[in-house]
Write a structure and sequence with these properties.
CATH architecture of the largest domain: 2-Layer Sandwich
Mean pLDDT: 83
Strand content: 15-25%
CATH topology of the largest domain: Endonuclease, Chain A
Low-confidence stretches: 1-6, 262-269
CATH superfamily of the largest domain: Endonuclease Chain A
Shape: globular
Order of helices and strands: EEHHEHHEEHEHEHHEHEEEEH
Radius of gyration: 24 Å
Number of strands: 12
């Protein structure tokens, strides 16, 4: 059998969010998938979908007129000019002083740096506003309200909101954390840094039990955590079972996934929309805790 080898400079390392894995691909292969990854990253950094498309087109095609961009991307001329103005204000493209007027993109690495700095500045401004708002709120007359613990539900959508809620739960955990997680969500928690935080509370003597399916990927992520064997186990469970977190038998987070329309470029593969249910409803928590304990008792050796 002939072995095909590639030179290092012909390969690129890309993170596939759907699979939750880093992949090594040849630079001239999987172009559409690579462009999807870049587009998703630009959107997460604050660009609209069409703005990301315009920037990527300019960065790959070189200087172009607005009419050429509009035609190539099937965008309305008015929207194209608006996007170009916005990208220029952000410092991601420049106008070439020629007739007719053309536009050129700044290098990709610089564009990413600019978008990250914009995010950082917004966060700093929000931090400053936070103190002012808290002071204003504190200055208001305090109404007399009898605080009574209520059993409530909260629906969260989007991975960022879910990761934030999971981190909040982790910070509140004082005695026990039970995590039932399938391979896919375990990979996402690993890359988001959530598992690093779980590892830290293990060191603080919090009782942690992580139960997952026994697959090659799941075993890899668990071993990377470097936690005692007694804190995790593998069970012969269906990977389609939803992930859930139970903290101190007082609150829980249940992840829900459903198909969200058609995949990119009209292909048949559909993206999964991530949502979650948070609750402190005792009956619900007790039910899932019983399920968790039963699965834990059936753990694989």
């Amino acid at each position: 059998m002939e072995t095909i080898t590639e030179k290092p400079e012909e390969l690129v390392r890309l993170y596939d969010e759907n699979a939750g894995l880093w992949k090594i691909v040849k630079k001239d292969r999987g172009i559409l998938r690579s462009l999807e990854i870049v587009e998703d990253a630009l959107i997460k950094l604050g660009l609209s979908k069409n703005a990301a498309r315009v920037y990527i087109y300019l960065a790959r095609a070189g200087e172009k007129k607005a009419s050429e961009i509009s035609e190539a991307l099937s965008l309305h001329r008015t929207e194209t000019y608006r996007i170009l103005r916005d990208l220029e204000k952000k410092g991601l493209i420049s106008s070439v002083f020629e007739k007719p007027l053309k536009f050129i993109a700044v290098p990709f690495e610089k564009a990413i740096s600019i978008l990250i700095e914009i995010k950082k500045l917004k966060i700093k401004l929000l931090e400053k506003e936070k103190k002012k708002l808290v002071d204003v709120w504190a200055s208001l007359p305090t109404p007399k309200i009898e605080h009574e613990k209520k059993e409530v539900f909260q629906i969260l959508e989007g991975e960022d909101q879910i990761d934030l809620k999971a981190s909040e739960i982790l910070k509140r955990t004082e005695q026990e954390l039970c995590l039932f997680v399938n391979e896919e969500d375990l990979a996402r928690f690993y890359h988001s840094g959530f598992l690093d935080s779980v590892e830290k509370i293990v060191k603080k003597k919090v009782s942690v039990k992580i139960l997952t399916e026994k697959t090659e990927r799941a075993v890899f992520f668990i071993k990377e955590m470097k936690i005692p064997v007694g804190n995790y186990s593998f069970a012969n469970v269906d990977g389609k079972l939803p992930c859930f977190i139970i903290s101190d038998n007082e609150e829980m987070l249940l992840l829900i996934k459903k198909e969200d329309g058609q995949g990119a470029n009209g292909n048949r593969r559909r993206k999964l929309k991530t949502a979650a249910l948070w609750t402190n409803y005792e009956g619900f928590i007790t039910t899932l805790k019983i399920l968790f304990n039963q699965l834990w008792s059936l753990k694989m050796k």
